UniProtKB/TrEMBL annotation, chain A:
GO terms for cellular component: plasma membrane. It comes from Oceanicola granulosus (strain ATCC BAA-861 / DSM 15982 / KCTC 12143 / HTCC2516). The keyword Amino-acid biosynthesis does not apply. The keyword DNA-binding does not apply. This is ABC transporter ATP-binding protein. One of its GO terms (molecular function) is ATP binding. Keywords: ATP-binding, Nucleotide-binding, Transport. It comes from the Bacteria. Residues 6-247 form the ABC transporter domain. Pfam families: ABC_tran, BCA_ABC_TP_C.
Automatic annotation (TrEMBL), chain B:
It comes from Oceanicola granulosus (strain ATCC BAA-861 / DSM 15982 / KCTC 12143 / HTCC2516). Keywords: Cell membrane, Membrane, Transmembrane, Transmembrane helix. The keyword Cell membrane applies. The keyword Transmembrane helix applies. It is a multi-pass membrane protein. The chain crosses the membrane at residues 34-57, 62-80, 100-119, 126-149, 169-188, 223-240, 260-283, 295-319. This is ABC transporter permease protein. One of its GO terms (molecular function) is branched-chain amino acid transmembrane transporter activity. It holds the Pfam family BPD_transp_2. GO terms for cellular component: plasma membrane. It is found in: Cell membrane.
Length: 249, 327
């Protein structure tokens, strides 16, 4: 079996008496979309926070391309190749779409200390940003202010900023959140292709998207992974049905 | 509505025209007033980099202003008394040379900003305001107790310091010098704001989580902004001391930190020319209204209130019709 690009090994985190993640081990292999599903409060956000570096686990490790990144803070993990998108769009609302994408390129360049040449006139930064915008279909909105974008466009920009990093692995927190049927369909098609560039750890509530996209699915309930398998295995697992999917599925 | 670039040029031209008119009309006091505008604007340009781009609400910038002032005061004091300045390991003589004083003032302010920033940036929001205020007050009380350099009474410098090729005692010469320094600082602000660093700092202010997610460290970005900011305000302090030929602990007082923050907000936070517009309005009101009533500050308060409530972009934002800097 190929080595995983991103993996957690026995991650645990408690807040007082509440165990938010309990011995969570997931692997993200090259070229795959690995979806994490689970009911509200199952610990998905805590897991994402531990993978991205916002939260330190009480126990366990996170590895990225074979390297232990558990001790690294969020910016260092991003530079090591982790590209994440946020559940609630985290964009510089006062800035333009292009500036938001260039920000990603500045981060990826590792040289944010240059203070003399205008960022938007730097051909490399700009090319990287424009390329990412074109790929998500925002090229003609490059000059728009982020605050003036529709919700769906903000979701697209969220993905574009992650693209500018050219990461080794994506961690996407509900990228479909709030998208209409058409938007979800487009993003589903896009992620389907994107997995070949870098694998995607996908936390998502949109079950149609999850079952259409995921090579493997892990089910998180009360902080524990209760099952990991292909879409069919998860769909037919009695344990998962009882814990999460309900009988109607 | 006036395009912001044109408006910026008009503000600078106006600031240059007033003392030139005063020169022709033989009104040296007006030139001194204009110089005061320029130096206060320079101090506020410094704050604007931390406050406007970086979102760092510092109520301790008087510390840098005072450090710049005392750098000038101490060096010039030793020069005019022909005494050596004992630095512990070695002694140096004082100097009356502005370029040397400016260098010392800038470096000392940068060092202070680095230390204050390292400690203050562990906090944010109202705690950041309070801790910067506390640092400013530490310097204030230290200066009051510093008997060697005049304590509460401060230091008087008999002759303005010198700059090669200029007679700094001629008001228009000194104005021109300060104006040139201000233009350089404004140019630095404009370049910095549009640079990768400015973009990153701006994002660190608006969405720190996003900045981190693309591999940027908001704290380090803000620390550098704070150091650059402190350096410019410190340089303004050295010029201010030279304008008055007097340094006292009041340069360190928190009133001054509040005053330059008012200048930035009046003129337009994060706008390149905001501090200049703010300082011009402030000094004009202080002069004209101050001549009519001792309570002029009430009118300033009312204007500030109106601007904060109805014109968030300050004077520059109001006249250029743009809500936010850089849109």
């Amino acid at each position: 079996m190929t080595d995983p690009i991103l993996a957690t090994h026995g991650l645990a985190k408690s807040f007082g008496a509440l165990t938010a993640t309990d011995d969570v081990s997931v692997e993200l292999r090259p070229g795959e979309i690995h979806a994490i599903i689970g009911p509200n409060g199952a610990g998905k956000s805590t897991l994402i926070a531990q993978i991205s570096g916002a939260l330190r686990p009480d126990a366990g490790r996170v590895t990225l391309a074979g390297r232990d990144v558990t001790a690294l803070a969020t910016p260092a993990r991003a530079r090591a190749g982790l590209g994440r998108t946020f559940q609630i769009s985290a964009l510089a609302m006062e800035d333009t779409v292009l500036e938001n994408a260039v920000l990603g390129a500045v981060g990826a360049s590792g040289r944010p200390w240059r203070f003399w040449r205008p960022a938007l006139r730097d051909a490399d930064l700009r090319a990287r940003a424009e390329d990412a915008l074109a790929r998500v279909g925002l090229a003609e909105h490059a000059a728009a202010r982020c605050a003036d974008l529709s919700h769906g466009q903000r979701r697209q920009l969220e993905v574009a900023v992650a693209l500018t990093l050219r990461p080794r692995a994506f961690v996407m927190d509900e990228p479909m959140a709030g998208l209409g049927a058409e938007g979800s369909r487009q993003l589903t098609a896009f992620l389907d292709e994107l997995r070949h560039e870098a694998p995607i750890l996908l936390v998502e509530h949109d079950m149609d998207a999850v079952f259409a996209l995921a090579d493997r699915i892990s089910v998180l309930v009360y902080g524990k992974i209760i099952a990991t398998g292909t879409a069919d295995e998860i769909r037919t697992s009695r344990e998962v049905r009882e814990a999460y999917l309900g009988d109607e599925s | 509505m006036i395009p912001e670039r044109l408006l910026n040029a008009l503000i600078l031209a106006g600031l240059l025209a007033v003392p030139l008119w005063a020169l022709a009309a033989d009104e040296p006091f007006t030139i001194t007033l204009a110089t005061r505008v320029v130096i206060l604007a320079l101090a506020a340009v410094g704050l604007n980099i931390a406050l406007g781009i970086g979102g760092l609400v510092s109520l301790g910038h008087a510390a840098f202003f005072g450090i710049g002032g005392y750098a000038m005061g101490i060096l010039a004091h030793h020069a005019q008394t022909y005494t050596a300045l004992d630095l512990g390991l070695f002694t140096v003589s004082g100097t009356k040379s502005m370029p040397v004083i400016w260098l010392v003032a800038t470096l000392a302010s940068m060092l202070a900003a680095l230390l204050i920033g390292l400690l203050s940036l562990r906090t944010s929001g109202v705690y950041f305001i309070m801790i910067t205020l506390a640092f400013g007050q530490m310097f204030y009380y230290f200066a009051i107790g510093w008997a060697e350099y005049g304590g509460e009474d401060g230091l008087s410098i008999y002759l303005r310091n010198s700059f090669p090729g200029l007679n700094t005692l001629v008001p228009i010469h000194f104005f021109g010098l300060c104006f040139a320094v201000l233009c350089l600082a404004l140019f630095l602000h404009a370049r910095l704001a549009a640079s990768p660093f400015g973009l990153a700092l701006n994002a660190a202010r608006q969405v720190p989580g996003r900045a981190e997610a693309v591999g940027l460290d908001p704290k380090r970005l803000k620390l550098l902004a704070f150091v650059v900011s402190g350096a410019i305000t410190g340089l303004a302090g050295a010029l201010f001391a030279d304008l008055n030929r007097f340094v006292s602990p009041t340069m360190f007082s928190w009133h001054f930190s509040g005053e330059i923050m008012v200048l930035v907000i009046l003129g337009g936070t994060a706008r390149v020319m905001g501090p200049v517009a703010g300082a011009a309005l402030y000094v004009a009101l202080e002069h004209w209204l101050g001549g009519l009533t001792d309570y002029w500050i009430i009118f300033l308060g009312a204007i500030l209130l109106l601007i904060v409530l109805f014109a968030r972009g300050g004077i520059v934002g109001m006249l250029s019709g743009r809500r936010q800097a850089g849109d």
